[in-house]
Amino acid sequence: MPYDPMLVQPMREELTRLGVNELRTAADVDAFLAEKNGTTLLVVNSVCGCAAGQARPGVRLALQSEVKPDRVGTVFAGQDLEATAQARNYFAQFPPSSPSLVLMKDGEVVHFVPRHAIEGRDAMSLANDLVAAFQKFCKTTAAR
Q1: Residue 140 DSSP class
Q2: Do 19 and 74 contact (CB within 8 A), yes or no?
Q3: Residue 138 appears among annotated catalytic residues
Q4: DSSP code at position 64
Q5: Which residue among 29, 42, 48, 131 is the active-site one?
Q6: Cα-flanking dihedrals φ and ψ of residue 72, to 5°?
Q7: Inter-residue contact 118 to 50 (CB < 8 Å)
Q8: Helices H, strands E: what count in the chain?
Q9: Is 50 a known active-site residue?
Q10: Is 144's pLDDT higher than 70?
Q11: What is the pTM of this model?
Q12: Which domains are assigned to the chain?
């Protein structure tokens, strides 16, 4: 049973205010991930405390970096069930985890952060890890 949309809306907006593309249907996910060139960060959002305290703030901090993915999207586990299931098909080699962060390059997963690697950390350390992955796999904004 999905969460109450009113409860979830502020949690959605925490990412969409940053310009993150909200993917609410399976078709949205397929259209977003159809672009294979470049880099994509996909955030599997959720209502849990580690999403609120570490994942969403960590993504916000990481996206302030000079080097970042070409595209950033999000699905909301527990709310947009079809979209989340479809997104997970693109990284089925990893067990379902929410929240989680998936960095893809040219359509292939190059970095995956599951819930257990988010829990118990602070947002800054998560952001630092994301920025290191961005620097390894993404072009600089100046090169775009």
Answers
A1: B
A2: no
A3: no
A4: T
A5: 48
A6: -135, 130
A7: yes
A8: 6, 5
A9: yes
A10: no
A11: 0.93
A12: 5-136 (3.40.30.10)
